Amino acid sequence: MKTTVHKAETRGKADHGWLQSHHSFSFANYYNPERMNFGALRVLNDDIVSAGMGFGKHPHDNMEIISIPLEGDLEHKDSMGNTTVIKQGDIQVMSAGTGVFHSEYNKNNNAPVKFLQIWIIPNQKNVVPRYDQITLQKNELKNQLSQILSPSSKDSGVWIHQNAWFYIGEFEKENSVSYELKDSNNGVYAFILEGDMSIEGQNLNKRDGFGVWDTTKINITADSESKILLIEVAMSV
């Protein structure tokens, strides 16, 4: 088993006034050659967008883009004709493929919106762009890992063009769970959304990241009331 730890305070930071962002991996003006990616996981940005502000129309291509709102309402518009609002409990995915333009704005004028923006390197290039989103049920998350993303449209959750699976779980103190990797060539990146957890003996706190590979299973214990995002991805891209 091999591991890497990214403590919350070691992440890259960006302050644009209207946007406060923390980068787990190199992004924009934050460059760390030791943090370019974790396998196919290329970007994990922890964003706070001020009331009424947002990202204007901009292009993407050949990237799988996942947005997970943590608080507030985020309005999405794209060149495929989609206009949607995503909020806490929603999971949004966009396969940029041959190219797409989109914008993201805080829908509200009286409160910030907080969300995770995640980029996964696809295993197919120049696919037809596509968009999808789902809404999670709160009871699906209690003291268990709930699948929110996979490589197949036949599985629960959204799907992407990569050998990847995402799970979210909310755990009461002292609850434990084991996660078995779907593919022995994959790794798992755990991101602690809230609280404190231990994974394979490593103590982790809010917004810490922990990568594990060369293993088939990991054991997770909640040291306090906690919430976790697990990202299993191909390690070779």
Name the descriptors.
single chain, 237 residues, mainly beta
Counted by DSSP, the helix tally is: 0
Instruction: Summarize the main sheet.
Output: 7 strands, mixed
Q: Biggest sheet, strands in spatial order? A: 1-20-17-22-15-13-14
Element-level helix/strand string: EEEEEEEEEEEEEEEEEEEEEE
What's the alpha carbon Rg, rounded to whole Å?
17 Å
The structure class reads: mainly beta
Strand content: over 45%
| Uncertain stretches | none
- Oligomeric grouping of the chains: single chain
Task: Report, as a whole number of angstroms, the end-to-end distance.
Answer: 20 Å
Q: What's the count of strands?
A: 22
Helix percentage range: under 10%
Query: Please, what is the average pLDDT?
Result: 96
Question: In brief, what are we looking at here?
Answer:
The chain is mostly beta strands.
Can you tell me about this structure?
The protein is globular and about 45 Å long. It is built from no helices and 22 strands. By secondary structure, the protein is mostly beta strands. The strands form 4 sheets. The protein has a 7-stranded mixed sheet, with no helix packed on it. Strands 2-3-4-11-6-9-12 form a 7-stranded antiparallel sheet, with no helix packed on it. Strands 5-10-7-8 form a 4-stranded antiparallel sheet, with no helix packed on it.
